Structures are given as C-alpha cells and as structure tokens.
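Entry for inosinic acid complex. Fields follow.
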Amino acid sequence: MSATAVIGLQWGDEAKGKIVDLLTDQHEIVVRYLGGNNAGHTVKFDGKTFKLSMLPAGVLRPGVVSVIATGVVINPTALLKEIAGVKEQGIEIGDDLLISDRAHVVFPYHMAEEAIYEKQRGDKAIGTTMRGIGLCYREKANRSHAIRMGDIIRPDVLREKIPEIVDFKNIILSALDPEHKPFDAAEIIDQYVSLGEHFKPHITDTTAFLHRQIKAGKRLMFEGAQGSLLDIDHGTFPFVTSSNSSGAGIHSGSGVPERHISQMIGVVKAYTTRVGGGPCPTELLDETGQHIRDEGNEYGTVTGRPRRCGWLDAVATRYGSQVSGVDCIAVMLLDVLSKLPEVKICEAYEINGKRTEDFPSQIDDLAAAKPIYRTVPGWECDITAAKSWDDLPENAQSYVKMVSELVGVPVKIVSIGPDREQTIFLD
Ligand code: IMP
C-alpha cells in the first residue's frame, strides 16, 4: 500500500496540478486515468508556468514515470502539440511516458458531432469543452466504432475500420447539419497512421506495467482530472463530464484496485468555481464574484472561459468528499480571499422551505437550493509569504478549521500562492 490519489472535490479546477507536482518527488510513477484534453492543470515553478492537459504532472520531474492509463480518451494530435509545448519550455519527454494501448482515441468527427449537440441544446447546453470527450466515451460504450491506442499502431486495422466508420459518421453528420463538410477517410487514415508511428514507443499495456511496479514496491500517484461533482454517475447530471471523475474512477480507469491506495487527498478550492452550465448554488453574480475571479485568475486553462465564482459550498464539497472517499484535504488558493472584509461558507441549503445538509440528487432541487451561510471576518492581509501554520493570521486559521469541520475531513495542506514554496503542510 504505497499509492496516493489526488482528487478534486468540487467542479474541477481545484489546483490539483500543484498538489500532484508537490508530491511527485515522493512517488516514482504518476498515473492519469480519466478524461482527456478537456482537463487543464497549471503548475508553476522556477518562474515558469506549465499548462498541462493530457500529460501527467510527473513529466515535470526528471526520473518520474508518467502513465496515461486505460480510462483516458486521447486526442493524439493535441497530445503531440502539448508535448511540443513543454519541450519548448525545456522539458524532454522520453521513454518515461507510457500510454495505455486500451485508451480510446478522439477523432475529428467526435468534435464535429459534439458541436452539433451543444448547439441544438440551446440554453440547456452543457457548456462542454468541445474536445469530443463525451462523444469518444459514447463510442467506447457503443463499441462498434471505437478505436483504441492499440489500434493506431496497426495501420492494417485503421485501413480496415476507418472507411466504414467515416462513411457512417458522414451520413449522421450530414443529416444533423446540412452544411456538414464530409470527412475524408483516406486523410484520417494517413493522419492517424503517422500519429501511431510517432506514439508507438510509448504505447503499451499500462495495467500490466502498473501491477509489476506495485509488486516491485514502487510508489504510485493517481492524478485526478475534473472534480467529483462532474462525475458522470455521482455528479450534477446532466451537467457533468462523461467519465468517473470522483475517486470512483481510479480502479476502472487504471486497472489498479483502490486497496493499493494508502492516502486519498481531496483538493478543495477555498471558494467555489464552475465552468459551463448547471446549477451552482453559491455563485456570486456581483462584484464579490468578480473580485474572486480577478484575484484567482479564474479563466479556464483549456477554453479561456471565465469561471463562475462564489463562496465555498461545504454541502457540495462534503458530498464530493464522501463519494470520493478522501481521508484528508488540501485547501487551495486561500490567498485569493485575503482582501475580503468577511468570508462566507455555505453550511446547508434551503430547498422548498426546508433546511437540508444533504446534496440533492436531482438537478431541479439543486437549482432551487438557497445557500445558508456562516459568515466570518476576513483576515485582510497578504498571506502569500507565510511559511507555517503559525504565520497565518488567526482569522485565516479559523476559516481553514471551519472548512475542515464542515467538509468533515482533516486539512493536511494549505496553499497560499501558485509556487511550490507557497504551501503549508499541517501535521
Ligand atoms: P466535457 O468534459 O468537455 O464533456 O464538458 C462537460 C462539463 O465538464 C462542462 O461543464 C465542462 O466545463 C466541465 N469540465 C470538463 N473538464 C473540466 C475541467 O478540467 N475543469 C473544469 N470543468 C471541466
């Protein structure tokens, strides 16, 4: 039992990348196990900012093996671009990157179909990242037209499967959108054969690899993407992503059972953000919301969309923590709240005149939920240079304790700025 998991407990963008990056020096292997290039992780160190999407944060630490496991859906063109981007910043990606031959592949027709659905949903749009993620997972569940990374290194398989799939997609897409410009099967085959050649040295059976490493006593870290409330089964359906982004996805997405995990760290922003559609009870549509957005630079890493911002929703976060099964939490971006004279945290909801501490399972109930807040005085001073818990002002300490009490899990880490050094570890 030497594995750690880092899971977002809210609607994603909790700054998981920083925690994974901080802990990688205690681990030999970092595993990304779900989602695709819908995710965005920002890691800052040595004055440089790295924006990762499909690459596990392990790539930033020499000697650490990075694994893109079975449950990830991979857009190989985007991955190639991402690798080129980090190379430009001085990070070499060699044979320390392993990609599962079972992982499914995103194609341009997935993105085209997603764009049509989102448009057709109108004001009920999910607000997806338009990266074809949901459509690729649908393909996987549907099986007939799915292509896996193990297929793209076999040109004969691509030549056999792609023409039939592309014909089918063109029929559907033309019916849905009369302006659809048909995809060319030969072009797609050439493109993916060449991508397959490029990625061949990295593609392998990562499940077998991970189990060999566990047997050899190596320390693994599972890097979550998105957040628990975006989980397809446990999140705010239908405003969710298409995979198990809570702790529930670790086993299915990596092939490693949870009994190998000794530490599950839940990552929580000191406030709430959400991108895309769906209810967000504590959202602030006023200048405080804008203040949090500006202070926290709350704009999507992947899409650049402004994030919806509000007070910390402890009802939602507690639920996220329960379904993910975390045993401690990291409170991130505490410094973003530093200028506010008072700070609020939602401890319960009022739904149709009744108080509840439970997170509703139905989206209409969540949309009707009115937050019941606890209000506490702010700390109104810069905390970004604090080196220890004792350096934090009393009001900031009280706020962190309140988060722990309401979420129901001890706080182990407090982050007070983007750099590796701006991190306080609690006993
Ligand atoms: P999809 O994952 O692109 O299908 O988008 C579904 C929903 O999940 C949308 O509301 C997205 O904004 C949200 N989402 C997907 N990935 C992330 C992420 O990494 N952070 C925050 N929200 C995300």
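NOTE: Residues 11-13, 38-40, 126-129, 131, 133-134, 225-226, 230, 239, 241-242, 275-276 surround inosinic acid (CB under 6 Å).
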